[in-house]
């Protein structure tokens, strides 16, 4: 039996984390033929790093890529008398590297979909300016779309600290370690800034391929989001809470006070990208 043709218009849900991308993943999976896989540990960064290193390898660029692939026994016989030519004889070229990367992405994410699902994608919070995976995905799949899921900066930053580093922030508050609290807060603030700014830059460059979705305004902006993805808008409200109570520091008064003080001091650091994303 012939393998079904794979869809080449994937949907990538990207963001800085603790931004509501899982909520959007669930909503999209409820829609028609769409299936959005969950996070995968950011493994595509390594794949694309390999591809970039191989494409720009100095010796491959000098000895392999400029030559036509060997296609006849006579050429092979000739090469046998040319030590350097034989030593660097390879059948792949730069275009083959991109094809191999694309084939692996399709193998990992476009196959083994649930019955009735044909349009694939994934969500991931680990891609940004350091690895440029989003840019590579747009080049690899010209018909693909990126949904940049974003949440108000301080809500996203503080949720990340509580969800991912609760024992650390509890210890810092108990020790009254203000320097440590600053460093922890700024680590997550800088991460939000870097990823959010990068994805906003991509949207400015490719407005037809990248769209920012403010999760607090999901219901109000749902029609435009689904039109951007060429999907039929579902009827009715989701009626689902996006974030749980455990998402905030409300149960930890000391942490809440530490966060409030840093919000005031560090507001200027997030303000430019916050405004670009539609906040304030």
What structural keywords apply?
alpha/beta, five-stranded parallel beta sheet, 280 residues
Report on this model:
The protein contains 12 helices and 5 strands. The protein is an alpha/beta fold. The protein has a 5-stranded parallel sheet with strand order 2-3-1-4-5, with helices on both faces. Helix 2 packs antiparallel against helix 6 (94-109), helix 8 (153-164) crosses helix 10 and helix 10 (178-205) runs parallel beside helix 12. It is globular, with a radius of gyration of 23 Å. The N and C termini lie far apart (56 Å).
Write a concise synopsis of the structure shown.
The chain has 280 residues and is of the alpha/beta class. It contains twelve helices and five strands. The protein is globular, with a radius of gyration of 23 Å.
Oligomerization status of the protein chains: single chain
Q: Which series of helices and strands comes N to C?
A: EHEHHHHHEHEHHHEHH
**Amino-to-carboxy terminus distance:** 56 Å
Contiguous uncertain segments of 5+ residues: none
Q: What does the radius of gyration come to? A: 23 Å
Mean pLDDT: 91
Helix/strand-derived class?
alpha/beta
SSE topology:
Layout: E1 11-14, H1 21-29, E2 34-37, H2 44-55, H3 58-63, H4 73-79, H5 83-87, H6 94-109, E3 119-124, H7 133-140, E4 145-150, H8 153-164, H9 166-174, H10 178-205, E5 210-214, H11 218-228, H12 253-276
Parallel strand pairs: 1-3, 1-4, 2-3, 4-5
Helix pairs in contact: 2-6, 8-10, 10-12
């Amino acid at each position: 039996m012939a393998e079904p043709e794979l869809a080449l218009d994937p949907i990538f849900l990207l963001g800085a984390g603790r931004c509501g991308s899982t909520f959007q993943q669930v909503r999209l999976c409820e829609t028609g033929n769409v299936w959005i896989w969950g996070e995968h540990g950011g493994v595509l960064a390594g794949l694309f790093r390999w591809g970039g290193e191989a494409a720009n390898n100095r010796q491959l660029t000098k000895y392999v890529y400029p030559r036509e692939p060997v296609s006849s026994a006579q050429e092979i016989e000739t090469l046998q008398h040319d030590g350097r030519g034989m030593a660097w004889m390879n059948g792949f070229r730069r275009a083959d590297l991109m094809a191999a990367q694309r084939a692996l992405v399709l193998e990992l994410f476009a196959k083994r979909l649930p019955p009735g699902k044909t349009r694939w994608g994934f969500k991931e919070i680990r891609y940004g300016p350091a690895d440029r995976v989003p840019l590579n995905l747009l080049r690899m799949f010209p018909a693909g779309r990126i949904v940049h899921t974003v949440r108000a900066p301080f809500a996203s930053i503080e949720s990340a600290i509580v969800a991912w580093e609760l024992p650390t922030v509890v210890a810092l508050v108990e020790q009254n370690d203000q320097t440590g609290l600053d460093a922890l807060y700024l680590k997550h603030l800088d991460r939000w800034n870097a990823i959010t700014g990068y994805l906003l830059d991509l949207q400015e460059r490719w407005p037809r391929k990248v769209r920012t979705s403010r999760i607090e305004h999901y219901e109000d902006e749902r029609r435009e989001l689904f039109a951007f993805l060429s999907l039929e808008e579902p009827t009715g409200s989701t009626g689902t809470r996006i974030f749980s109570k455990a998402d905030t520091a409300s149960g930890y008064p000391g942490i809440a006070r530490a966060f409030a003080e840093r919000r005031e001091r560090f507001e200027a650091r997030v303000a430019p990208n916050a405004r670009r994303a539609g906040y304030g």
